[in-house]
Amino acid sequence: MPRTLNIAIEGCCHGMLDNIYSQLLTRQKQTNKKIDLLIICGDFQAIRNVTDLGCMSCPDKYKQIGGFYRYYTGERVAPVPTIFVGGNHEAGNHSRELYYGGWVAPNIYFMGNSGVLKFGGLRIGGISGIFKDFDYAKGYYERPPFRGHSRSSMHHARSYEAFKMLQIRQPLDIVVSHDWPQNIERYGDTDGLLKKKPFFEKEVERGELGSPLNALLLERLRPAWWFSAHLHVRFTASFGPQESIFTQGWKGIPPYEQDLSNVSASGGLDANQTDGMSGTAQIGNVDEIVMSSLSDEEADLAEPELEIKRPRMELNLPPPKHDIAPALIDITDQEPTSETRECTGAVTSDLKQEEHSIQTDSTNIEPATTNPVSYSTPRVSGRATNFLALDKCLPKRQFLEVIEIKVPDSAADGELKLEYDPEWLAILRLCNPYLPLDESPFVPPAQAQACEANQLPLFSDEQVDRELEWVNKNVFRNGRVYVPSNFVPVAPVPPPGTPDSVSFGLARNDGNRGRGRGRGQRGGYGHNQRNDAPWTGPRPYFINANPQTDDFCKMVGIIDPLTQLLR
Fold first, then answer.
1. 309 contacts 203 by C-beta, under 8 angstroms
2. DSSP string for residues in 438-507
3. Model pTM?
4. Tens digits of per-residue pLDDT, 223-240?
5. Cβ atoms within 10 Å of 132's Cβ, excluding its own
6. 457/445 Cα distance (integer angstroms)
7. CA–CA separation, 528 vs 530, rounded Å?
């Protein structure tokens, strides 16, 4: 008998774990259905102390310690297994300690800068951050104390992470991102979206709303579900199996439309030169303003949102859809094709959040097939991708929904615990030697050939299979491998009883640009008066050695050059 999983999806968290878990427990009580997993789509804000708060990518006036530190110490425990990707408002130093993923607290798991996990037979991929073209091609050049632009650039998605995700061959059930895939609004109720967010109109007209990186991944990966947040609005879309959202391939994203193969290691701007670099922006039809007077973080938190200017790309896309019913999403059902492809079941949603629900319709399709050439595809024949974006955790916002996923018998025999994914570990082994550690543009290695019609840089199946053989022999020799419960706190926290509103003197009211307000001000996220009590004791260091990362790298047989440099 198939197992049915109840998966909760949360939009932007913004540190509101208590409110989110309260909503989930109320939901369980009302429906008498246990929530099996919570997925948070970014802006999690795992703030442990004053150093994390100082590194958090947001305007100082918004900074508060929040309540996460109580989960970090074990004073509170997440009642539901929780996984999340990073957004653009995070403590970047904490995220870097867990670059490959790991527990930020008991029962709360960060998926890393990119990653794939299994849960109850579902295969879930995730990619953190948002797209900024001026940082996309760069390596990980940021170093402590993470000042100026580097504080926000740590949360700008990099082409190296896209390169890793492109190597995935086996189908995914779910992909989680913070940023929307570019142009996904064209496959849903575009008019309805613009009624809620009229300041998106120019970006929609130019084909620039969302992330081209995520559109590239959606074009190739085509999971059953794609969940996002960031734009603070609920939106649904259905991306059909025969449709194309991004056909330009790897070189369709700036700056890869140019030949970077001959770029020297010293290329790119000096790290000091990039601090504060932001370009220009517009608010609707208002006169152009300079971003140096309004930071990236303030631009994203202020309403209306800012439109970042990017080179226009010619897209082969359908025109925006009008007068369609966004509540109707076609869902496909198919049989598994291999041990690594354990589940792509019928998915249904039954949560009515703010009197909205996702209605579903299941149809039978042909079993997934494998491309006979040496570069396999993760696509499942005939399957559409169902896109769901949710709002931030605030009253009267649509920030939380629950979907039911029916998992076939072949994938329903394990415990409901997070598992490592063999193919992803093989991909990490294959890609890890090329992890870029400076500001020079990342160039895919020569071993990754430009394949398929859109010229994606892919390792061959034979190359992936060699690493997969090692992984199966050395890691999965006894079958599935659950993620160990090896969380240990490595950073200091405030004294017990410290209010969520404490800013340790970091929050300053530097003017009310835009309509956004600080979380410590009336009308802000927390609705609390700001508390500027000072941090007591020594100031914690920026990066802590995390034994989870060390244990993971030893298990997979890779080195960890990034966090070694930062310590």
1. no
2. SSSBP---TTSEEETTTTEEE--HHHHHHHHHHHHHHTSTTS--BPP------S--PPTT--TTB-TT--
3. 0.81
4. 999 999 999 999 999 999
5. 21
6. 8
7. 6
Q: What is the pLDDT of residues 41-70, one digit of tens each?
A: 999 999 999 999 999 988 888 889 999 999
pLDDT digits (tens, 9 = 90+) for 147-157: 889 999 999 99
For the chain, helix (H) and strand (E) counts, in that order, are: 16, 21
Is the previous residue joined to 304 through a cis bond, with omega within 30 degrees of 0? yes
Nearest to 448 by CA among 437, 439, 457: 457
CA atoms of 111 and 187, how far apart (whole Å):
28
Pairing of strands 385-389, 225-228: parallel
CA end-to-end span of the chain, whole Å?
50
Number of neighbours of residue 389 by Cβ within 10 angstroms: 29
Among candidates 75, 74, 70, 68, which has minimal Cα distance to 53? Answer: 68
Q: Lowest mean pLDDT: which of 71-75, 277-281, 374-378, 495-499?
A: 277-281
101: its two tokens: 């993923």
The residues facing 108 across adjacent strands are 82, 105
How far apart are the C-alpha atoms of 6 and 19, rounded to whole Å? 19
